[in-house]
Amino acid sequence: MKKSTLALALVALMPFVSADAYEYTSTQRRYSSAPTVKTSGYKKASTTRRTGGYNNVITNNFYYGQPQQVGYAQKRVPASNGSYYNAERKQKETVQKSYSSQTRKYFLAHPFFQPLQGKFGSVTDFSYARNSFNFDILNGYVLGLDSNVTEEYNKILDIGVAALSGKAETTQFAVKEDISYGLTDTLALILMAQYDKTKTEFKDWSGGEPGDSRSDSGLNLFGIGLQDRFVDNDDWIVMGEAYFQHQKDTANTLMLGAKAGRKVNRTTLYALGRIAYTDLTHGDIYGAYVDDSTGDWLMLSYKQNVKDLFQIEGGLGAFMVLNKYFTLNGEMIYGHYDWHNQLNIKGAFGWQPGDMFALNLYASAAIYDSGKGKTKTYMNYDVNPDIAPYTSSVVYTSGDYKIKDYKEWKIGVQAILYF
Q1: What does the alpha-carbon distance between residue 206 and residue 166 come to, in Å, rounded to a whole number?
Q2: Who has the most CB within 10 Å: 13, 147, 280, 371?
Q3: d(CA 336, CA 376)
């Protein structure tokens, strides 16, 4: 009997999360940033708001606040006849000097944000994700595993399972921390860790059988990576990224990605692509798995006889600065996640009251998944079964199940610091 791998955090919920959490990261899969770094040579402002003698400007997704320049005022001199004239040679001038103090604000929820040299960034991501699908059991084959019973029971028998259906559901609460440090103004080092609590449940059996579930929690994900924003000018911004992630007792993953954006007034329009290779460190099967204290277990496998996984995704996004305090971000991503393909949409709303802190609320959902209609293999290990006429104390059943639908969604909030 093959070993089985508990529902992968990198596969079971939302395909994969971009390791740079300024985004949007994974459920397990999958998931930001800001433009121009140099302050010299400003592009013509796209929006100017006149308030109280100040020109408040948003340029290239940065907010600038700059006092108006005040020139000299020519003083009119009284003439001998009591009228006023502008003196030529005897004219007196008063010059009022104004010192320009320009402030500049990074938008921390920007998909291309990373700290400048010597600066730190922190993204603490609290999320809740759910993945579920209804399924039908199509058939079943039983093998008695008890060496004490006669040989006639120790062979595969077709038991013809019919009209049995149920629901599989996996939920996860996760807290992910990404710490970034600016090695240069364009290159940043990222360290990450994640605590999660994952629950997998089989329920709603058509035969009235009670449901069963399994929970697991702990510090299960660690990683390290680099981000390089190698193009950043008035019109374009381009970033490359590479990450290594270790999922405890499950897998090691290498991810490479790139994104390129075009700056248009207050908005950055961008495209992204990511590729991930995962090596399974325990077992050669993965899927949704539940066991209990009696030793019984059931797995709805996604794939068997596999030692590694390959995932690739690409998409389009837009980041918009609404004003000095609020931002919007939207993405649409299509990906191949080893055993299924998925189209996912995501939206985020950011609030940044100051230069060093921001909150980013986000939600994502699958609007298409090719898992619907797929036929996969299930395995059931039953200790002391009560199914007549089998007398074996241990029975192993395997067969086909069909996925009737497939749903995923995720919500979360990111607290972002820059210091």
Answers
A1: 6
A2: 13
A3: 17
Torsion on CA atoms 60, 191, 271, 345, rounded to nearest 10:
-110
State the pLDDT confidence band at 389, using cuts at 50, 70 and 90: low
Tell me which DSSP letter residue 52 carries. Answer: T
d(CA 87, CA 192): 71
104: left (phi over 0), alpha (psi -120 to 50) or beta: beta
Output the CA angle 405-202-409, nearest 5 degrees. Answer: 45
Token pair listed for 89: 């040679």
Return the HEC string of 124-166: EEEEEEEEEEEEEECCCEEEECCCCCCHHHCCEEECCCCCEEE
> Following DSSP, what letter does each residue of 213-243 receive, concatenated?
EEEEEEEEEEEEEEEEEEEESSSEEEEEEEE
- Specify the pLDDT at position 395: 80
Written as one letter, the residue type at 190 is I
- Determine if the pTM surpasses 0.90: no
Q: Is the dihedral of CA 22, 242, 278, 179 positive or negative?
A: negative
The reported pLDDT for the residue numbered 183 is: 98
Sign, CA dihedral 7-8-11-13, equals positive
Which amino acid is located at 210 in the chain? Answer: P
Decide: 110 and 409 in contact? Cβ < 8 Å.
no
CA distance 414 to 371: 30
Q: What's CA 112's distance to the chain center, in Å?
A: 14
Cβ neighbours for 413, distance < 8 A, ≥ 6 positions apart: 125, 126, 127, 359, 360, 361, 362
Q: Which of 392, 313, 361, 311 lies closest to 148 in space, CA to CA?
A: 392
Distance CA 128, CA 13 (A): 10
Query: Residue holding tokens 């940044």?
Result: 352
d(CA 293, CA 49): 66
Helix (H, G, I), strand (E, B) or coil at 111: coil
